[in-house]
């Protein structure tokens, strides 16, 4: 289980000042690819290894304006940023997970850039 948090956009287009969070299951690459192929992405869609997926439960997802928000998991009492909201098909559609930047895939690049 992972948690995604963001300051959501309100009904008038303004950012709210209360941080919202939602628990979402991390979805395997195989299942994510299969579920995304059932959308307008089509049967040839391939999920790049720089992405990971979470969600797929009705009403639980990142949405417009949440891009870059963290997806975090806990292990042994420590919190880790494992993903960043990137894109999705709709918002909170059942059976359609959200797509996140896979931070672990880019960690060497991040470390190199931040050491400059």
TrEMBL record:
It is found in: Secreted. Its main location: secreted. It comes from the Eukaryota. PROSITE patterns: TRYPSIN_DOM (PS50240). GO terms for molecular function: serine-type endopeptidase activity. Residues 1-115 form the Peptidase S1 domain. Keywords: Disulfide bond, Hydrolase, Protease, Secreted, Serine protease. GO terms for cellular component: extracellular space. One of its GO terms (biological process) is proteolysis. The keyword Secreted applies. Pfam families: Trypsin. The keyword Disulfide bond applies. Belongs to the peptidase S1 family. CLIP subfamily. PANTHER family: SRCR DOMAIN-CONTAINING PROTEIN, TRYPSIN-RELATED. This is Phenoloxidase-activating factor 2.
């Amino acid at each position: 289980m992972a948690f995604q948090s963001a300051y959501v956009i309100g009904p008038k287009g303004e950012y709210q000042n209360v941080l919202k969070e939602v628990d979402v299951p991390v979805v395997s690459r195989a299942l994510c690819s299969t579920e995304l192929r059932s959308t307008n992405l089509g049967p040839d869609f391939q999920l790049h290894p720089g992405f990971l997926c979470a969600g797929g439960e009705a009403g639980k997802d990142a949405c417009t304006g949440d891009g870059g928000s963290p997806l975090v998991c806990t292990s042994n009492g420590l919190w880790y940023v494992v993903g960043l909201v990137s894109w999705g098909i709709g918002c909170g559609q059942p059976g359609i997970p959200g797509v996140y930047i896979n931070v672990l895939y880019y960690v060497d690049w991040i470390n190199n850039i931040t050491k400059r």
